Input
Amino acid sequence: MNTYQNYIGGADVPAADGRTFTAFNPTTGGVWGTFALAGPAEVDRAVQAASGAFRTGPWGRLSPTRRGRLLMKWGDVIAEHADRIATIETEQNGKLFAEMRAQARIAQDWLYYFGGLADKIEGTVIPLDRQSIFNYTLREPLGVVGVITPWNSPTFIAIMSLAPALAAGNTIVLKPASQTPLTALKFAELCQEAGLPEGVVNVVTGPGGKVGMAMVRDPRVDKIAFTGSTEVGKQIMREAAGTLKRLSLELGGKSPNIVFADADMEAAVKGALTGIFYNKGEVCAAGSRLFLEDSIHDAFMGKLTERVKGLTVGDPMDKATRMGPVVSKAQMDTVLSYIEAGKQEGARLVAGGGRASVGNGKGYFIQPTIFDDVRNTMKIAREEIFGPVLSVIPFKSLEEGLAEGNSTTYGLAAAVWTRDVAKALRAAQAIRAGTVWVNAYNLFDAALPFGGFKESGFGREMGAAGLEHYTELKTVWVDLS
Output
């Protein structure tokens, strides 16, 4: 078992009071590592390092082109260490090694994309009806950005925020989830190896209520980019009001996956499996509500349940495994409580429904679980479970399917399956969600913005739209008379 420190100003920094916390391996249930338990003192030091790097350090003096090249170099270094990063993340949160290695390599694409945009952040010249006035706008970096990431996909989600924030010229204080802190520390180490100056990326480890909120309250932090639960997002909004800092909130979801009778059934079944059982359902955009048109319900469920029986639950390092453990005992208990609630409310359990027996029996494994005959008012259909639990809801018409799909406080993502292009476009327009997939699920690209409607948050990551959220717009008037 190793002990790890905070990473501040290019150096390893222990907690001032020497306190630590322990992270566990969800596959075995055993202790995985010990980490510095940061507090307000470490947050203060990290913000000071980031502020110095932005205001007086070399980062603020770099040309955008040079800044972009450093991000690309960082992407190359991450790709070189993809297997190590994948192993760390698999041991921290139970994500399949193959999935994690792919995400570690995708990080390079993200850093290349935003590295290429770094010198394309442009203002505009605005013609006025005043011949003596020259007017233009500038987009400038905000300053210090606090990034708070969850445990479900630490590499991918951290890069979603870090890449555009750094491309725009900001500096970073990163607070990873307490279950998965080492990926962030490894990123910071590789960041320095790629040549980014000290203080540009800093990492503080510890609980969100103490460390994350200290970042939110600090007036020197110009923006918070948070990915996590809607409940915590609301708390961050309340705390951020004291300093009126910028926010990007990518929050929970209860995404509808709507299959019409004219869909390619084989493709839709595969999409339904991917939508809910990828990463054990620990995905903010998980297709946790499957809406099936009545006429295909029975045939679809037959194929779906048959496929679920073939999903191997086990060691995420094993190539044969298709679903690893959930991240922690607390999360396992939460998911199991939702499964029990589904039974109590009268949903019909057709697959799974309990812990999976794997290895020494101490890991946090849950069977892939499907409830049929679910009503949209049931707890398992209303609340985000964040685990491998699928609610199947029948519908009779296009209008009913869309209305039921939209009947949620969330609005992060959705999917529709149909061979009818006109129907697909009507559905995509009607669905209140930030992303709508048509005949696909869980597709992402650095060039396309991602974010939510309603209580799934606001702001966007990725794409040129995401980059703008890390800039301040300035208007300049020049009197030429």
Observations:
- The longest helix spans residues 97-117.
- The longest strand covers residues 133-141.
